[in-house]
Every structure is written in C-alpha cells, then in structure tokens.
Amino acid sequence: RKEVEQDPGPFNVPEGATVAFNCTYSNSASQSFFWYRQDCRKEPKLLMSVYSSGNEDGRFTAQLNRASQYISLLIRDSKLSDSATYLCVVNTGTGGFKTIFGAGTRLFVKA
Amino acid sequence: IAGITQAPTSQILAAGRRMTLRCTQDMRHNAMYWYRQDLGLGLRLIHYSNTAGTTGKGEVPDGYSVSRANTDDFPLTLASAVPSQTSVYFCASSDEAGGQYTQYFGPGTRLTVL
Q1: Given A15, A66, B9, B75, which residue has the most CB atoms within 10 angstroms?
Q2: What is the DSSP letter of A83?
Q3: Low-confidence stretches of chain B (pLDDT beneath 50)
C-alpha cells in the first residue's frame, strides 16, 4: 500500500462545478498535511496547508480526518484556470525529508 | 527575490557522462531537497540536507551524490548517467514553522539520458 494515495483521475468538470478530491495516508503518526498544485511541465506550488479544524481559502476548502486518515480538497465554482494536477502531501515525522507526495489527481475544467 | 533557481533548464546527455544539476536558494532555508518526478510515480526524494554541511539519502539515492558546502547551494551530481535517470528533477527548500515543513520548489531540470 502506498503511503499516500489519491483519487485516480482525471476529473473532467464544467466551469462553475464543485469538485472534491480525497487522499488517504497510511502513517497514523503523520503530523502535517498540504495540498499542492502543479501545472503541466511546471514545479509544484503550495496551494494550502490542511489544519485539524479544516480551513478555507476563497473557493478552496481543505479538511482533515485523523481518525480515518484522509484529507480532502473541495473546489467550488471551478474556473478554467483551476485545471492542473493536485498533489496531496503528508509529513510523517520530524523533518522535511519525511514528506511524502501523492502521485496527484488531474483536473480538467472545461468551458 | 528569486526563490529557488535551477540550471540547466533542460539537458540531453549521453549515457556514461557526468552531469551536475545546480540549485541555489536565496530564502536562507536550512533544509534542501532533490526530487525526481516520473510519470505516474509522483515525486521521489533522492537526497536531502537538513543544514549546511550535512546530507542524507532519500528513497532513490543510487547513482546520485550531493554536497552542501553552504546554505544557498545544493548541487546534484550524476557520476555516470544511465537512461533510467531520464526524468524531471526538482530542487526544493523548506522552512520550519510550528512543526510544519513547507517546501518550495525550483522550476525543474528536464534531463534526457540517451
């Protein structure tokens, strides 16, 4: 089993749709969680951290469920510019070298 | 502020040749990392450095070496390139705040080994 698993993609949605991505992690001692966005042939960029109480940044909402060991990302009112690959990222211990990146879920938003 | 720069942007290399990928950050982050990204496999850690003067092995270190002589630079060397090292290489650095290690990435080097 992979340490971080994401929804298989791609997701194809129309503009204005709401789309949700889930991610599960295997290490119950994991301490911090993130969503990154990666555009084609570009570097990953931090989208948002994920906090235990859940957090929102504009159209994006991230939630963490420690009991079930999954995190989610909800995108409301999808824009064409949201088309990208979304990486679920989990830090499993002390030190950035213990960061595990999911393989990513591709999102295509169509007009 | 440039953040993290990598050079070259892309390179085609003959098998058996030696190659150094360069990475420089200006954020004064203590920790730096090298990843490779292959289709369907996501980012895999090659080597890391928690602070200047120290390095460690990641998930896929074989065939690669690193050095960390100062805070800003973290070069990755392929001593004798092989075709399986064809990949996109990302350098990253991280700060640490409240126990969170947020990583910031350079633009990547696309390497093809023939």
Answers
A1: B75
A2: -
A3: none
